[in-house]
Predict the 3D structure of the following.
Amino acid sequence: MKISYNWLKEYVNFYLSPQELADKLTNAGLVVADIHSVEDDFCLDVEVTSNRPDCLGVIGIAREVAAMVGASVQLPETNYINTNIDVSKLISIAVEEPILCPHYTARIVRHITVKPSPDWMQKRLKCIGLRPVNNIVDITNYVMMETGQPLHAFDLDKLSDQRIIVRRARGGEEIVTINGASRALFHDMLVIADSKRPVAIAGIMGGKDTEVSASTRNIHLECAQFEPRQVRRTSKVTGIASDSSYRFERGVDPEGVELASKRAVKLIKDLAEGEVANRNIDVRLERYETKRITLRIERLNKVLGLEIKRTVASDILKRLQFNVINEVDTFIDVEVPSHRGDVNREIDLIEEIARIYGYNNIPTKTSISVRGSVKSKYEIVEDSVRQFLIGIGYYEAKTFSIVDASPLQSVNLWSDKGGIDIANPLRQEESRLRTCLLPSLIHTKIYNMNHGVERVKIFEIAKVYLAGEKLPQEKTCLSILADVDYLTLKGIVESLLTCLGITSKCEWMIFGGSILFKADRSAKIQLGNNVLGYIGEAKELELKISPCMIELDMDLLIKMSNFSKKYQTLSQYPPVLRDLAIIVDEEATWASIEKCIAATNVSYLTGINFFDIYRGKQIPSGKKGIAFNLCFQAQDRTLKSEEADIALQKILNALQETLGGELRKQ
Amino acid sequence: MLEKLEEVKRNIQREIKSITALKDAEQLKIKYLGRKGIIHDFMKLIPSLPAEQRAAIGQRINSLKAEVTNTVEELIKKFSGEATSKAKHEVFDITLPGKRPLVGKKHPLTQTIDDIKEVFARLGFDVVYGPEVESEYYNFEALNIPADHPSRTDFDTFYIKNDILLRSQTSTVQIRVMEKQKPPIRIIAPGRVYRPDTVDARHSFMFHQVEGLLVDEGVSFADLRGVLNQFIKTYFGQDVQMRFRPSFFPFTEPSAEVDISCSLCKGSGCSVCSYSGWVEILGAGMVDPNVFKSVHYDAEKYTGFAFGMGVERITMLKYGINDIRLFYENDIRFLSQF
């Protein structure tokens, strides 16, 4: 809220420069975001938190300043002379929805002269960014900015039958508001109506038909209270946010109507002449009951970590206009001023005392107890994975969890169900929770390529969101994209698994087509009974080179990881190595060879190491040569060459029988 | 005979001195040591000598031969060595650039989160995580933010359906932890949060927060100041000052916003701190009794504090990054700087 420095000085005496004032307000919780000079005045832009609607008027700010500097607040003049004609002869009021409109008052001023408001008022309104209109409209704005209580002036002669009904809108009703826009009204909206039609959306904006114009002679000055949630809902639905709705939805002072109404009439009488009708009409649901709260001194000091005396606490409360009704050593009973709707409990009083005492005058203790923190397995694995990947030259990326609904982004490797849409997206580009991380990494790859980085090695650890029962399943994935070949990326994953202590063997199964991967160069990775993830070379999107990508189930990695280690004795005896090359059918896989060798269960075999595959002149077509070596070793003695040869022969026989593998003649 | 030998010796010594190249040395070798050389000629004379002189003269000739051979070979070696090293004169350049292994980097936001985690781990805080897709209850009601309340204005939210939303703050984790656990509690909860803000240099619809919560008997606002002061000094530097300002959050009372003295201008005012000398880095406060009520804690027995900070904001401040979008573009030229 913008306030004028000179205006503020009318209600409280202080000797602070605009900057000093701004610092004080900021330290008391009213952040001054900006100060700028306007003619001979200064405009301070004060950020008022949503719990402090009482500070949405200059008087409210003055109360804060008074509490800070220990001064008192001068309320503005409200006395005026009225005529003998009773208000009830001029207007009738009916409130059909007392819950939504707990308080409605009307004052009537007749024979006014509508003209521009005087310079001093225009200057103040301009200082805080309001456009002067005419004296009546300016006065209602001025008093709202002064007291925080919105008011509205109707042209009395334009109200049909001089009758006001506060009721819900009826189906099909419309209103043209003072800003010229036409709005359809619905039954859940509260309106101010005359005997025929709505003339204002309650608490939000008045109607064009009944607004004060140059020809207006008689006015009905409405000063009322509306239920905050109702105003907020209607404001949201109609899209109208006004200075009035802003204040009503936060809650105005339940005892503030009288001051604002009288103050406005006093100014109208002064600035627009006119005759004020006797009395006012006041329709009120119930009397306001003053809140009483007890503050325990021990509790105050316990919560704040202070040792302040009762007298200090009670002095602060008094400066904030709390009425101390009872005060003993251990507690203080106070009555809460009506404008402090945010203060309802002991803890709220504690905050008030802390605020004025000064948050920065509260000690900075370092006496919390000692406690060892424990790293969860999730963190250990996440750290290990990151450390491993950056160690081999990979960069960590972070991409958005909300993506578009394109076919690429709709890839779902983990579930058959569709993606989860955002009900209120800002843009179509961000309208769905992602089901796969890889499309975002592809976009990152393209982004880098367009910015001159040809080759990338990147990874991301983040969640994918899979449709579930009530809440979706949030699965943490590890995805990698790199301009390397399939076997390089596969090797990285194999090393990573070793690094995480996952010793169970993975099965690499053919994974057919997908929008992401090339059909002949992609695999589904099975770990035990679970799918660990998917790997493959990227399909030629619009990329010249096709990087290799992998998406892994991070939750499974965490579950399967095992960091307990036990020392294995190092063999004292040399291994016997046998290199061999066999010729098999093109379709035979390395996995089938390994499986076949493992099935022989030969003794002393400790390792099988793949060398390469070759096809060429010496190899018949439809066949391929596979070279590898076998490592034999005993723990307790030097293995004899003949023992290795016997085992080797057994293996060769098995390969011959199972796969038709022939030893390649040198 | 002996005199002649002495003369030859002198000649040789003189000639050796004048040798400057391999060619000269080789000629000298032929002249004296060759099959038709001078020393060989002396050898041939030995049989003609009287028997009693033969041994002594022979010895002298041999020793002269050995001496000359040594000297000449050394010279040959010397000059031939020079020749080869001149032919392929190679110097190892120790200033050539090293062969650098490729090293990756953690994302700068991960680095910040890791740093924050480490500081709080030393103060005994455990790290916990919570779901990003939440029910309204955890994002609002349990945190003392009722429906249609103006405080909800500060928490615009992406919805999935009726009461399911994307969390707009990590404070949701407070509730989830307190529902499952009895005090004492000491946790931090990092994670992604979402708000429907149009993307620009300062706003992003997705960003990261770290939430903190400590609940025990006898925890006070002074302890909150103590813990945050520790964090600020460790993370931002021992000479950095801390300032608490009253503020409002529905889930804490009293509530505070915490500023640090601007590290760029040392408090004298610059564009980073909007010429105030202070930069806001986090929100904090004492857990509101209503929050304790929703997790069935006895608010008379237990007190606690909570705090929350924006990871992007802290990272931008630390490195002077002026555009939040850089974090999500993942330009390698950006990532490699941290």
Remarks:
- The CA atoms of residues 540 and 546 of chain A lie 6 Å apart.
- Chain A touches chain B through 85 residues (CB under 8 Å).
